[in-house]
Amino acid sequence: MLKASELVNLGYVDVDKEINPSEVLTSVYTKFKIKGPTLESPEKLKDLKAALKDSRNIFNGIKGTCSTMVDIDNEKEYVYFSFLFENPSVMETAFIKVFDSFIKLSTHTDMVEQICITGEAEMENCRMHLSRFGSPPKFAVVQSFSDPFPKTDEDNNATAGGRKVKMHSKDDIICSLGAWKIKEETLTDEAKFDSLSKTLKAYNTAMLEIEDVLVIELGISKELGEVYFQQHCGSTKAIYEQSTFLTMNGGKIKEHLVASEMVIFTSENSQGLIEDIVAMNVGPEKLILMKGMK
Description:
Elements: H1 4-9, E1 26-34, H2 36-39, H3 42-60, E2 65-72, E3 78-85, H4 90-97, H5 99-108, E4 109-118, H6 123-131, E5 138-143, E6 159-160, E7 163-164, E8 174-182, H7 184-187, H8 190-207, E9 213-221, E10 226-233, H9 236-249, H10 251-256, E11 257-265, H11 271-281, E12 286-290
Parallel strand pairs: 4-5, 11-12
Antiparallel strand pairs: 1-3, 1-4, 2-3, 6-7, 8-10, 8-11, 9-10
Helix pairs in contact: 3-5, 9-11
């Protein structure tokens, strides 16, 4: 897992040196359902898109935000947001600065899901900060399987685990996220659930060994019966290697999980290739590809 300072060197939005970095990054995935009257009105849909772009720009202008991506799905049913923060305290500043845009957004949409993956020490802070944005029917704050950052002097070189990684423009970053259902027999069997947790931890570690995998956050909610993930890659090659790994070594994962939904932000030029790779090797029940608003 790259530190926030290293993500800056890879082309992400700048972060604030004054912010005390958390032991792990905090990722947030938010889903809004677009209201019927907005879908029926080109003018209202235009207003919604403007509010989304404003929100994205405001978040990305806040120190401590590593990445914000947003878009509307092809069916124009839902809005998807992806956030990556250096520290959950960024959300407190964000709430104040994005308030007017968020009110406009709420006139056109209803928040239906909000999932946060963070370090154990930050879970309560995340619940508090996110509660200001609303109380969607589906809400979870889960602990990340990622190991805490090592306690070392700040290193502005782009390295991960001692290896050099390529420099990337943030426009080249591929963000994939989603929720996978835990099978009932795993939820009700402690031994199987423990096996799933260990398998996910091993998978998390293996993904970080792939070149151009910049960030991966995995978390599990036994209460909701789901596994959540957010991953940032610097190339389609990384997506291919991840998908191939699942084909070759994913038996234990598929034993416990159903790949229910996967959302991928990527450039329009890469969408066809990524769709083929993911459909062949992962096969989620629902795959949503978006280029992300600029």
